[in-house]
Predict the 3D structure of the following.
Amino acid sequence: MCGIVGYIGKEQVAPILLEGLSRLEYRGYDSAGVAVYSEKEGGLVVKKTKGRLQVLSDVLQGGAALDGTVGIGHTRWATHGAPSDVNSHPQVSRSGRIAVVHNGIIENYVELKAFLIDKGVPFVSETDTEVVAQLVEYFYKGDILQAVYESLHLIEGAYALGILCADAPDQLIAVRKDNPMILGYGDGFNFMASDVTAVIKYTRDVVYMDNGELAILTRDGIQCYNSMMQPVEKEISRVDWEIDAAEKGGYEHFMFKEIMEQPDALRHAIFPRIRDGEVFFENFGLDEDYIRRMDKIYIVACGSSYHVGMVGKYNIERLLRRPVEVALASEFRYMDPILTDHTLVIVISQSGETLDSMAALREAKRLGATVLSIVNVVGSSIARESDVVLYTWAGPEIAVATTKAYSTQLAVLDLLALHFARVLGTIELGEYRATLDEFLLLPGKLETVLADRDQVQYLASQYFNHSSVFFIGRNLDYAMGLEGSLKLKEISYIHSEAYASGELKHGTISLIEDGTLVFALGTCGRLFEKAMSNVVEVKARGADVLAVTTESRREAMARTADAVMTIPDTCDMLLPSLGIAHLQLFAYYVALMRGCDIDKPRNLAKSVTVE
Ligand code: AGP
């Protein structure tokens, strides 16, 4: 939710921190700040401002206004205390000697604050993070690492912390518990950051910190410790993607770039996983015996990843004849789920850091289930704590509104369903092979859908000022509508709802009146006639209907709908993978025409690491 970067080296640190923060701004963007040790001042200089990073950058003249070669920076998504200069990070101890940047939530901050106030410590902000700075100072007797260590015994919650002490300006301290922190290794310099994107310009050698670990960074090296303060040796991983993957590359918005990258992302996710006419997962940890014993599948996720699960439920149940439940991760952990040793829990997450999904994963493991995760970010917490991981290999996704991660998650889940069906013998060999052929054609077919974007842009120009939109469909089309509706509301701020078409007549149809915009999703061939009946019903009540269907049904749909967007025909299970592109593009163009901040929609953050 918040972004942290810290650097110690020989270069001027402020421009490096600003550059790193610019790559982390997707994690939160309501305020930003830096703390730098300045020899000239003989102490820490802290600058922080409410608003986008650009405001801070202007104040710091792009970094030129601050002198120093060690520092920490932060970009914030407010939890405790409204966005303001004083609530921004770094938070500083009363003496000004200790600065802290934090991602996460200190759950017992009220008690700790009361304890410190009782000891005469004054507080200036409303944040939970200030408690950490003050507590570390409370324990500080000249050894900053020891003070941090003692503080951690009292702190409850989730946190990634970056700490700089004016008395020890040749080191930085990084801490990680339930929120991400990576360490970047350089020659004469070292980094800490919430995410690899902040350091990739300088180094590809990174370490993923584990829960409970602390690290001391100096110019010459990094020493990690476990939660008992015993030194630990960490394995250095080499990041294998290029910096341009995290840059706009000429596109106006990351979201549009990522929509257009989907065919290639699908190639990466699918092609290595089909070998000699079979689904192939490298180092797959679920053997055939386990798959045969599986009694039920739970899919657990949040937001768009949950919508992938909704599509998956229809596909898996049809193919496997095994029950599949889809649960919102935030509900799962409190719903006392019924799991057995033979229940497979599939956790889906782009970031691999979503706290609700992480908590659900731990609950599932505690209850004895096997956890398989479908994750995009390599080395993320969810990936590391799962029994089996399937990466989506979509590359870095920066826009808050997910697109290519959604598509690749869906492709991987569908491949998994096919694999299970093959092992269980619930699919005919002919259908299995034909479906795999369709998988191989999917990226190319998606390219043709994206090539039709002018039509979607035109339709967006006709309807962008509507204040309410319905997405209706049955089965897979309903599941796809859930995602289309979320895309529209999160970036354009238009109220929208997705409904199973058959459910409209049970109440919601009363909202349809002259000019209501309805997206009718009718790609599923076997349900097309039913879809058409619902289109007729809403047309009869005055709705403007934009439809999505297959090329072979365009004509039939065009008899009733006001406009029809089509996708190439394919096997049923892949229809949402094509249809969703029209809905993503519609949301994008509508948001563009409404002048919205597409990559950084209000109140949102890319990686949701609070409950
Ligand atoms: C989608 O556009 C959202 N930004 C959001 O719903 C997201 O899918 C959700 O927060 C889950 O994130 P994750 O996949 O990283 O776990």
